[in-house]
Amino acid sequence: MSASVNEKVLDGDVESAYTLNELRPPPASSVPLPRRPNTLSLGHRRGESNSRARIIGEFRTLSIHVTDTKEGRPDKSTQKDVSDLSELEWHNLSSDEVATRVGVSPKTGLDTPMAARRLTKNGKNVISPPPRNLPKKIFFYVFGGFGSLLFLGGIVCFVAWRPLGGPHPPPANLALAVILFLVILLQTGFNAWQDYSTGRVMASIAGMLPTDILVTRDGETFNLPAANLVLGDIVKITLGSKVPADLRLIEISSDLRFDRSILTGESNAIAATIDATDINFMESRNIALQGTLCTSGSGVGICVGLGDHTVFGRIAKQATSERTSPTPLQLEIRRFVFLIALFAFLVASVIVILWAAWLRRDYPGFISVPTLLVDLVSVAVAFIPEGLPICVTLSLTVVAGVMRKSNILCKSLSTVESLGSVNVILSDKTGTLTTNKMAVASVAVGCKAYPVQEALAMAIKSESDGESVKALAAVAGLCNDALFDDSSCEKGGDPMPIAMRKVHGDATDSALLRFSEEASSVSYLRDSWEEVGKLAFNSKNKFALKLFRSKSTNPSYPIFDSDNYSSSDLLLLVKGAPDVLMGRCSNFIDASGTIWPLDHPTIANVSSIQEELASRGQRVLLLAKRIVTPNNFNQEDLDSNPEDHLVALNTDLCIVGLLALVDPPRDDTAHTVSVSRRAGIRFAMVTGDFALTAAAIARQVGIITTPVAEVQHLSDLPYNKPLDEIPEFNSDKEPDDKLTSIILSGPEIMTMTESQWKQVLTFDELVFARTSPQQKLQIVKTFQAGGCTVAVTGDGVNDAPALKQADVGVAVAGGSEVAMEAADLILLSDFSSIITGIEYGRLCFENLRKSILYLLPAGSFSELMPVVVNVLFGLPQALSSIQMIIICVATDTLPALSLVYEKPEADLLLRKPRDRKKDRLVNWKLFVQAYSLGTIESLASMVGAFYFGFILNGVPFSALWLKYGNYDVDPDLLAEVTNKAQSIYFFNLVIMQWFNLLSTRTRRLSVFQQNPFIGSKTRNVYLVPAVICGLGLACFFSYIPVFQNILLTRGVKAQYYFLPMAYGIFLLFVDESRKWWNRGHPKSILARIAW
Q1: Residue 242 and residue 238: Cα distance in Å, rounded?
Q2: ∠ Cα 317 321 326 (to 5°)
Q3: What pLDDT is recorded for position 796?
């Protein structure tokens, strides 16, 4: 059938399916793999680097989800991309069937009219930029949080001014409306600042995609802009080409390889195939993924995914999308806003009901409609702490700045607080808990282990056992990608000590290279052998191998006479995990170099040595070799599919020996673990290393403290224990309570039931060994599902999915770029700086609570009382609405902001982590504390207003009480006296808040223990300036004539400054007495209800 006939038959179905679900049926979208950028197309700018790392993290996470779904383990939260990608079948179809389903002839390609129609219908092959949603953002900048309430209050004040204000509307109502809108404008600016982000990566992502590509249409091959590709196009890939779309390969050369590092982070090129190699579309080698680079060979593929529907397009969308789920702090702020709005609505409703049912009927001249509206606005103003949004933003910024000075890079302000609520830390071992500076510590040859120096001495002296040590050192030097830096090999003409030479390579290879060089010259050794092929170590295989051909007819180490090596043979050298390679071995070399069959006693002996070394915290590698005869080797197979051919050769190995490497813990790791555990945080190890090695390191750093005999394993957990019989984790253990420990391995994790997982979550000390990246991700999700706030620390590419999934991902500087991009925090120096992060994360939440507690007594309760007293008892309002706004926005805001600079209390890291479900930013305990202080402030201010403001100025209290506007006083006198009384009330609150500020600085400690003026660990240099500025603003609005005329404010006499100080000292004394009692009686009722 011709191409045109195919297109006529299938065109409608294919295009409609592509539009609806990226080519169904069968599911036919594309899943391309992006590539590592080459020097011709990409620079090394920081933005591009970040984008590449972000793409890799997204790819790894998405690929894990797709594989799980294909294998029948879909995640409950699986997103649409995972579902769609798991249904793709292009890689499983034959080349002819793929061509038929997209309506194209592999020889002639699409015809031009068909391509034009598809381009018109489906659009260009480009990745859409992320939507900016500016209108939506601006809307929430203005109306988010308290903005909607303030905006409604401003409108009401405008209405109360005109038209309801009559022919002579009071200017105070207009001024109040203007001030409310100014507050909204100020909060909008801070909201925009908080939301501002510079993490735009679309420009660099666009630079990763090709511009022109070779395509076949109408039987002719020509260059076409990649953006004009359509579904079914036949694309030719050559050396150096970037893949322009997701391609199903239908023709390949034997040496076709793709660099997928931009997606996977792996530097080795991947050989292409025509047949499927994996159930996962994203991992199958017969799919060329968009953005990847052809490093050798050539091939032809059919476009099966374009633009946003490619794997690269999906990942780019994820990498540039905003976080959809709110952070814990955002949830707490929303809850607080809801509570405040609810309280304001309830009180306003009561006032409206009282006015409509009682006051309007019995006292029609007391509260007019405009006055009622202003009263309602006053209620809203009284409840809303207008300075809170500024406090939130500044608090996060200040704490992030402190963390930056502590060498902690915080990418997102909201992450700061999340770190403070972490109650589980899952930490990688190598490079995180340890220095990642490995050295060979022990050597095992001929079923006997030696310290490394003793083994090297035997090799140098050419003792009988030394021959096998030399062979082992030769394998370590040859099966190795590390290189000495030539510039560091000599110093002043003298050879540099091997331990001091600079090495280019990973930590393991560097240690092996130094060990090999100590035994003999590695450069001479490598000059004697020609590398034919290699397979790098990866987390799936857990071994690395190299294939060599001798350059001489009489090769030396690691060849022995008993090997019967001939010049036509090849030498296969392997290093890797003993538990993986042991099953591939059939022989072993004894100490003298004689080859013996590998029997069960020898296997038991080798395993015993491995366990002994691992129990010391040493990482054990098995080194083996095989003589490959010409009958077992095919050069064409090696060229066409090197990985599969090399893996096939990796059998019938001969054990040369074991090398045990030690990676010492960082100096600060034990201290970090200890402080974390005292802070109520479970510190677990998640590593790919052996269980014995992991357990040994865990004991060294304090992750496991229970006796060896008491450590449990999977076999100790009932298989199907009813879930309702499994208790929750007890976080309230006393110091003398017995702790529980468990060690699990990756293979065991694969067999665990839901019941066993729930039992695991109840342990105090946990070590997960031999884990894969998928299992690390599973462990994080399991703890999160159990209600834990999880922090993950790591430094490798394979840690990226777990770092991204965690509530807080913490990367160690110097690790992989992918890990640092996936993380929320980066530790730039010591690992112990994570303690600083936890402390200041907690401090951020604590200081926000202190700011709220400071704002509520005067800015909420004491402002509400004048309105309530006015409505219920008919008294003049003791505080004007404008003065309420001045308190909330001006005089209270600066002292509240000074609280965000408070230093940590001494016991902050001795408290349990905050439970996000129970420990709220604002709870009933905080309201009790705030309104208790507010009661003292409002009573003292009421006395000041009515006694010193009204009575001493000739207006008896009896002339006001229950008069409801029918006051027996000259109206002009009453108006002026009311203005003075309101100002007395106003200044009384402003000054009493100074002592409230001192009171709320600490939760448990005395003001003398946390001295705000003396001591670098407790001093707050912003406290006094904030108080002075607050008083200055109060005087500014009260003493300047223009404000007195418009806002009806008044200045007060000096005596009314000192009386509030006396009241404030009493308030501080009451709260200091409460803290003193609670410190001495921590289990008393008063202590339990303390905020």
Answers
A1: 9
A2: 145
A3: 73
Which of 822, 752, 763, 823 shows the shortest CA–CA distance to 788?
Answer: 763
3-state secondary structure 32-55: CCCCCCCCCCCCCCHHHHHHHHHH
Amino acid at 528: S
Contact, 287 vs 33, CB < 8 A? yes
The span from the CA of 259 to the CA of 269, in Å, is 5
Phi, psi of 213 (to 5 degrees): -150, 155
Q: Which residues are catalytic?
A: 428
Taking only the tens place, the pLDDT of each residue in 224-239 is: 888 899 999 999 988 7
**What is d(CA 361, CA 381) in angstroms, rounded to the nearest whole number?**
27
Distance (Å, whole) CA 283 – CA 981: 77
Helix (H) or strand (E) holding 1027: helix 1023-1039
* CA-wise closest residue to 429 among 419, 421, 420, 438: 438
Cβ atoms of residues 793 and 811 within 8 Å: yes
Angle at 30 between CA 26 and CA 31, to 5 degrees: 125
pLDDT at res. 207: 42
- Look-up: residue for tokens 């040496």? 255
Residues whose CB falls within 8 Å of the CB of residue 218, separated by 6 or more in sequence, listed in order? 108, 109, 110, 111, 112
Residue type, 529: W
Decide if 125 contacts 228 (C-beta within 8 A): yes
Dihedral angle computed from the Cα positions of residues 621, 671, 804 and 55, in that order, rounded to the nearest 10 degrees: -60
Distance CA 94, CA 107 (A): 16
CA distances to 433, 641, 686, 701, 839 from 698, rounded to whole Å, are: 9, 41, 10, 5, 23
Asked whether the beta carbons of 120 and 334 are under 8 A apart, the reply is no
Quick one: which of 669, 840, 692, 706 has its CA closest to 769? 692
Residue type, 658: L
Does pLDDT of 215 surpass 70?
yes
Please check the confidence at residue 579 and state whether its pLDDT lies above 70: yes
* The two structure tokens encoding residue 355: 């006015």
What is the tens place of the pLDDT at every residue in 298-352?
899 999 999 888 887 777 666 555 445 566 777 788 888 888 888 888 988 999 9
The sign one gets for the Cα dihedral 325, 329, 331, 333 is: negative
Q: What is the pLDDT of residue 318?
A: 61
Contact 744, 712 (CB under 8 A): no
**Model's pTM, two decimal places?**
0.71
Residue 982 to residues 385, 534, 695, 1077: CA-CA distances in angstroms? 20, 86, 70, 37
CA separation for the pair 234, 538 (Å, rounded): 34
H and E: helices and strands count for the chain: 41, 30
| Residues forming beta bridges with residue 664, ordered by sequence position | none
- List, for residues 12-54, the tens digit of each pLDDT value: 333 333 333 333 333 333 333 333 333 323 333 334 445 555 5
CA–CA gap between residue 704 and residue 724 (Å, rounded):
28
* Whether the Cβ atoms of residue 538 and residue 599 lie closer than 8 Å to each other: no
Q: Using one digit for the tens of pLDDT, what is the confidence trace for 81-117?
A: 666 777 788 888 898 999 999 999 998 999 999 999 9
| pLDDT for the residue 272 | 87
How far apart are alpha carbons 798 and 786 in whole angstroms?
24
Short-list 641, 471, 688, 483, CA closest to 558: 471
